[in-house]
Amino acid sequence: MLNRQIRATTAGDSARLEVETFTSNRGLALEEGLIFEIGRAEVTGVDLDEPAPFEPRLGGLERKDPIGLPGLSEPETLRHYVRLSQKNYSIDSGLYPLGSCTMKHNPRLNEAVARLPGFADIHPLQPQSTVPGALELIEDLAHWLMTLTGMDAVAMTPKAGAHGEVCGMMAIKAAIEAKGEGETRRIVLAPDSAHGTNPATAARLGFEVRSIPARADGTVDAAEVERLLGPDVAAIMLTNPNTCGLFEKEIVEIAAATRNAGAYFYCDGANFNAIMGKTRPGDLGVDAMHLNLHKTFSTPHGGGGPGAGPVVLSGRLAPFAPAPFLRRDENGLRLVERLDEAPYSLGRLAAFHGQMGMFVRAYAYMLSHGADGLRQAAEDAVLSANYIRASLNDLMSQPFGDRPCMHEVLFDDAWLKPTGLTTLDFAKAMIDEGYHPMTIYFPLVAHGAMLIEPTESESKASLDLFIATMRDLAMAARRGETERFLGAPVYAPRRRLDETRAARNPVLKWTRPPPQPV
């Protein structure tokens, strides 16, 4: 681990010697070994009494040998995980330009509200009569989700976007089977510009997926959709705005053609944060759409466990919503959990109703912004992306022409071709500048794609520094400063990996290296 090599590095026109330290630390950039390297299996930081005599009940399956876990003291444990956390990039440390992922700021107000005892301390198995406030919050959140989307029902149980896709498509499948068309409608249409999980979800449910190619302008042709529709088509899965960062301008025509053909329109709502408060998917003809609460309503990605991906449903699909769901009757608000009370329900997707912590955070975000604030968040996200687009379009190429985008801007690698560099090289050089790279090589409809989403969280000063950094890197690439890119990252905790070798020959188990001779 220790390395005392001396190497020459260049910064601009000046060269300097960089000395590798004895500890491999560089000031406050601390090197940290694996926990197996720094721990000691024969000790532990906690004193545990020997258990009283007992009779094992594992049927001879109990462990015979020592478990071999590394033991650390409390200070060592704390330092280990703090040092690891300092090697991670986060939205709290800098701009996170991941296109399609919407890495936006998570307001601390939301975190404080989610930690209130009445929300943080409840348990999914306690009686419904003891959590009326939680049920009312879920009902209010569901109401505003339906209001924002113009839809008739919402399923709150899905735990994430892909889980929401499964829910929406299962509702479509249940509706088709209820009409006696389950054996004939087996095709799902998925545009090339859709999110990658869309075709996977359809295939997982037993549908055959047929792709719809993108037009030269990056959008879906309504006439092509109508040509592909027929009595064997169950649904179309369309992302809007799509993964090229473009609004599907013929979405109303696509929805009408789909409905006329007896099929259903599933809209991937991962990018709803670009149109929130501006247009309602229900008014466009959508039948089902999932909502990533982490993208649009600023809950953490994953939330330290399950996330939340509610699915809004049209009146055609509302009867097929999964249980449990909320119902208000003469006895007040309650969860409907028995399927005999919901004869058309597609069943359960999860054991419990949903992720309460994410619901509280999303609801707090809504209340603190209000209708005008939510609309402005969408407008600012689109403005930020177009500011980056306009500031870089003289140096970096766009696959679908220099045209306004939505909340994310897509570049390709055509401008890099004369330099001999790749999208990956450019992305690795961004790490040395202190930025997490943008999403690369996705969407697949753009060669060497670079998808940038700044979100509404960033100030103009933050965007200006990012743009200036991107311009400096682009001009360095055009000047032929290839070493700056091929050797990157230099300043990251680890240098560039052989990703192909790592994928083909992964090392999944740590083994202690032999002792080094003194």
From TrEMBL:
Superkingdom of the source?
Bacteria
What's an example of a GO molecular-function annotation for this chain? pyridoxal phosphate binding
| Reactions catalysed according to its record | N(6)-[(R)-lipoyl]-L-lysyl-[glycine-cleavage complex H protein] + glycine + H(+) = N(6)-[(R)-S(8)-aminomethyldihydrolipoyl]-L-lysyl-[glycine-cleavage complex H protein] + CO2
Q: Name one GO biological process term.
A: glycine decarboxylation via glycine cleavage system
Q: Where is the Aminotransferase class V domain?
A: 182-302
Keywords from UniProt, A to Z, are:
Oxidoreductase, Pyridoxal phosphate
Q: Which PANTHER family match?
A: GLYCINE DEHYDROGENASE (DECARBOXYLATING), MITOCHONDRIAL (PTHR11773:SF1), GLYCINE DEHYDROGENASE, DECARBOXYLATING (PTHR11773)
Q: What is this protein called?
A: glycine dehydrogenase (aminomethyl-transferring)
Originating organism: Methylocapsa palsarum
